[in-house]
Amino acid sequence: YQPPPHLREGHWIGFCGIANPGRFQATLNELGCTHTFIPFRDHEPYSDRVIQSLLQERKKHEVAGWVTTEKDFYKCVELFKNYKENLHFVKMVTQIEQGFWSLLVKVVGK
Questions:
Q1: Which of 12, 54, 93, 99 gets the highest tally of CB atoms within 10 A of its CB?
Q2: Residue whose C-alpha is closest to residue 57's, from 82, 78, 39, 81
Q3: Which pLDDT value is given to residue 2?
Q4: What is the strand order of the sheet 11-16 is part of?
Q5: Closest Cα partner for 43 from 69, 25, 67, 80?
Q6: Average pLDDT, whole number, for the chain?
Q7: What is the rounded CA–CA span in Å between residue 44 and residue 50?
Q8: Whole-angstrom Cα distance, residue 62 to residue 11?
Q9: Is the confidence at residue 83, as pLDDT, over 70?
Q10: Nearest in space to 7 (alpha carbons), one of 55, 63, 61, 78
């Protein structure tokens, strides 16, 4: 997966509701995305009220669009369509470090 190159153009507002939102923010930084970041609690139940609060941030910056995780994109894309906003996602990939499985077997096997 390659994130869209246009994330490097303009100012974006990044947000997510995952267990470690700082990791997503770091990913946006690594991609060269200039952004304001708004973390939510894990499994945020996005509602029209939440989206309206996000839209308040838009007034502070000239914004190219919104960027979130794939999970959060599908949770709130319909709400964003109501406001005709430009919403994109960055696909997060989990990589398991070498030695993880043997360590897990050791710990669980005790």
A1: 12
A2: 39
A3: 55
A4: 34-39, 11-16, 63-69, 87-90
A5: 69
A6: 89
A7: 9
A8: 7
A9: yes
A10: 63
